[in-house]
Amino acid sequence: MAEQARGSASPARYGLTDDRAEAELRAAGWWTDNGPDPASIVVLTALSRAADPDLALRGLDRLREADEAGWPDLAAALCENRILRGRLIGVLGTSTALADFLVSAPTEWRRLAQATCTGTDCYADTLLAAVRDGGSDTPLLTGSAAEQALRAAYRGLILEIAADDLGYLIDQELPRPSYTDITGRLTALADAALVTGLAIAEAELRKPDTEPTTLAIIAMGKCGGRELNYVSDVDVIFVGEGDLSLATRLATTTMRVVGKACFEVDAALRPEGKQGALVRTMDGHIGYYKKWARTWEFQALMKARPVAGDAELGRQYTEMVDSMVWSAAERENFVADVQQMRRRVEKHLPAEIADRELKLGRGGLRDVEFAVQLLQLVHGRADPALRSPSTMEALDALGEGGYVGRADAAELENSYEFLRTVEHRLQLRRLRRTHLFPEPSDTVELRILARATGIKPARGRAEGDLLLSDFRRHAQRIRRLHEKLFYRPLLQSVASVPTEALRLTTKQAAQRLSALGYVAPDGALQHIRALTAGVSRRASIQQTLLPVLLDLLADTADPDGGLLAYRKVSEALEATPWYLRVLRDEGAVVEQLAFLLGTSKLVPDLLVRAPEVLQLLGDPAKLTGRDPREFATSLRATVRRQPGLKAAVTAARSLRRHELLRVAAADLLGLMDVQSVCFALSSVWTAVLQGALTAALNKREAELGSAPAKIAVIGMGRLGGAELGYSSDADVLFVCEANHGFGDGEAVRFATSVAESVQQSLGQPTADPPLQVDANLRPEGRGGPLVRTLESYRAYYARWSQVWEAQALLRARQIAGDDDLGERFIAMIDPIRYPEGGLDATRIREVRRMKARVQGERMPRGADPTLHTKLGRGGLADVEWAVQLLQLRHADEVPALRTTSTPGALTALAEAGLVDTEDADSMREAWLLATHVRNAAMLVRGKAVDQVPSSGRDLAAMARVLGYSAEDDPGEFVDAYRRTTRRAHASVERVFYED
């Protein structure tokens, strides 16, 4: 029994299996005849969590032997300080090399019990202080003394980084730094080492009478990308000006000092490699890269970053190579050269270690880096967001930009981080450069490495087995995605579509197109030939995409028109680098685009001028998720930054086009309801007016040197009601008020010139739907002044106001300009549009006569009154007249009726009991349907249309937009429209003529 009790308290319980473990624990004071000392249990528990508990205990024992006098302090601190305990044991359980460093400098453990520096400046200050022979004003050490001091300081900082990296394995309450944080700190330390090495070289070589000479050190490779390993060569290029002999000696000395103290400095990436001059001038570099550089050199230069020496010279160098790097993809056989280079690296890898090579093997780090760099070089020419030297940042940008599928990018990031973490743990072991995964048979090394990466036993499997399984899974994933992105640029789902249909004879192809529903197959063949002509990469992608598109377009209302639109869009966007990539990689985008092009004549015209919206088609959340108010804020901010009225209006038009296309696409695809569409379109118009008004005011004020008046713009009609359609004008009133020191005449003249500028600048004809600012609802109509003061409006409405003007004011809403003035105008007109006591019988009869006259006079000759969305029976005007009459009659006593929204007013009427719920519902349904149909007509035909077509492709397209399927008879849509509006008209008749 005594032996069993003793066995349960053996060191093995804490993962300590070495025969020396108990003796070492006793020597430390942590073990007694009765087992572990209670105060030391926390240390033993920490040891049990180390990657190699025996190695960690052995390191502590060596520290005790190296500094017996200081051991009591360390032993006590380990029991009391969890931060020190986690960080120190994490290091000792993983790295024999750092244990050796601690033993050689026994007091260095104290730095793990306090906060550590993490920035480049902090590291540089620490290293520079270490190589000074005294205080901050003393000269730097040189020669071997400098190298020894730099080596000790560098190792101490490596120790701090490793302690932060490994501490969480021992104590999960310690912060866990991210992979990018660790690589960033290692890079910052390498930068500081180069700065210090160059400073030592300057101290050794530069004399007071030396000819002016500048030297810049350019980091390359992983150092340039801020993703350095614990142990790695640091690739550099030297650029010098002045005395190149001195610059070369400075570079050589820097390489010697840093190489002996910290890491090897490799300058083999310089022009002509090791055979070329170590230092070249800027002109020398430019001449070489323009004439002799090979493709791989531009690939390497992606990561060029100035780190030490003359900052201005370094900046000039990186700016110079930047323009060359991002045009390298235009070189002949560029993609083939990059692919061949990767194959060559694989070919030279020994077969016996190929499966264990973390860096160069199949499914290794280079697979990720080559694929990412190729995509960066191809697409980064036009997208600066991709121009990051960091692999992880570049993957993020590729995923965000859609150049790589989001899932693919996330998988590559996860796998790349896993391999880099394993690589770090392997290198920490002995601080040697290695990329070789352990043999599968080496279970001890696998177990230690697994524990060092944070893997714990699970599902009855040992840590080493889990690590090996993870390693193989990540390698297979990387290789699969590498081949997909690097060698097969077309997404598999698109590449698998057979292209034999395009290899038919002309007659066979025409027959197939005719069978698909193309009315003019010969014309369709011409479009296909134009898109696939030649042997360019663009043509080959089109050859793969077209079979998919032809089938998808065949399911739309107008396949011929859709294919013609696709050709026009493709030709207009052929220089847009991501256009075919999106179609190639995002299957959903192809499907949505085909429907839009085969349904709408408006969308293709907008798409060629706002192509970026195409990228939203594969993500419904992005297509519909933007808050119109957020867009309005963005537009106003953009317009404010423009230098003048013309530039402001151009910017506003561009943003309006983008938003118009986004809303139109979401509308056509059934992702937005009609009220959301109208609200979005109204928000766009409001933001455009606000931006144009601000720009016009600024321009006029700059011309005069003062602003005689403040101006407010009052939205009227559908703009005021936030019910605009795609073809609606902006009905407005302009109101002004003199600023202090100016008269009303000056104010009106100033405001009139501003209002005219707004109208003229926005009214310029363009290919987009027009931007007409209509002020005809102002007092006296077109014959009246364009702008009036607030008091002039007050006087006019008090004396001359007619009932139709009160009716028009029901939808008045302040939308732009001076908010206070606009609010006072609204307060002034409230008694007019919401008359006290409502309307008398005379004015009610006047409204009814006016409705009959307007609808009779304005209905187009020959139009079918049952299919006219605006003036027809049960159409928009029918419902609006009824609603507005009731608002005029009852809004004074029912505050809920004081709304500019037609559907909102109908809801309030029903809730107040002024309209039967059934009548309110039928009128709301008809109003929403007529609005939707009117919008759909604009989208389908590309121009404003108020008449529902009774037959033909336009009718079929409108039916699809309204939610009917391709198999449904479009006549069902016409019948449903007539049925809905007929019920609404009956309700209108009851409501409008009710006494």
Automatic annotation (TrEMBL):
<keyword id="KW-0548">Nucleotidyltransferase</keyword>
<dbReference type="InterPro" id="IPR043519">
    <property type="entry name" value="NT_sf"/>
</dbReference>
<keyword id="KW-0547">Nucleotide-binding</keyword>
<feature type="domain" description="Glutamate-ammonia ligase adenylyltransferase repeated">
    <location>
        <begin position="87"/>
        <end position="317"/>
    </location>
</feature>
<dbReference type="GO" id="GO:0047388">
    <property type="term" value="F:[glutamine synthetase]-adenylyl-L-tyrosine phosphorylase activity"/>
</dbReference>
<keyword id="KW-0460">Magnesium</keyword>
<feature type="domain" description="PII-uridylyltransferase/Glutamine-synthetase adenylyltransferase">
    <location>
        <begin position="339"/>
        <end position="486"/>
    </location>
</feature>
<comment type="similarity">
    <text>Belongs to the GlnE family.</text>
</comment>
<comment type="function">
    <text>Involved in the regulation of glutamine synthetase GlnA, a key enzyme in the process to assimilate ammonia. When cellular nitrogen levels are high, the C-terminal adenylyl transferase (AT) inactivates GlnA by covalent transfer of an adenylyl group from ATP to specific tyrosine residue of GlnA, thus reducing its activity. Conversely, when nitrogen levels are low, the N-terminal adenylyl removase (AR) activates GlnA by removing the adenylyl group by phosphorolysis, increasing its activity.</text>
</comment>
<feature type="region of interest" description="Adenylyl transferase">
    <location>
        <begin position="498"/>
        <end position="995"/>
    </location>
</feature>
<keyword id="KW-0067">ATP-binding</keyword>
<keyword id="KW-0808">Transferase</keyword>
<feature type="domain" description="PII-uridylyltransferase/Glutamine-synthetase adenylyltransferase">
    <location>
        <begin position="850"/>
        <end position="991"/>
    </location>
</feature>
<feature type="domain" description="Glutamate-ammonia ligase adenylyltransferase repeated">
    <location>
        <begin position="591"/>
        <end position="825"/>
    </location>
</feature>
<dbReference type="InterPro" id="IPR023057">
    <property type="entry name" value="GlnE"/>
</dbReference>
<protein>
    <recommendedName>
        <fullName>Bifunctional glutamine synthetase adenylyltransferase/adenylyl-removing enzyme</fullName>
        <ecNumber>2.7.7.89</ecNumber>
        <ecNumber>2.7.7.42</ecNumber>
    </recommendedName>
</protein>
<dbReference type="Pfam" id="PF03710">
    <property type="entry name" value="GlnE"/>
</dbReference>
<keyword id="KW-0511">Multifunctional enzyme</keyword>
<dbReference type="Pfam" id="PF08335">
    <property type="entry name" value="GlnD_UR_UTase"/>
</dbReference>
<dbReference type="InterPro" id="IPR013546">
    <property type="entry name" value="PII_UdlTrfase/GS_AdlTrfase"/>
</dbReference>
<feature type="region of interest" description="Adenylyl removase">
    <location>
        <begin position="1"/>
        <end position="490"/>
    </location>
</feature>
<dbReference type="InterPro" id="IPR005190">
    <property type="entry name" value="GlnE_rpt_dom"/>
</dbReference>
<dbReference type="GO" id="GO:0008882">
    <property type="term" value="F:[glutamate-ammonia-ligase] adenylyltransferase activity"/>
</dbReference>
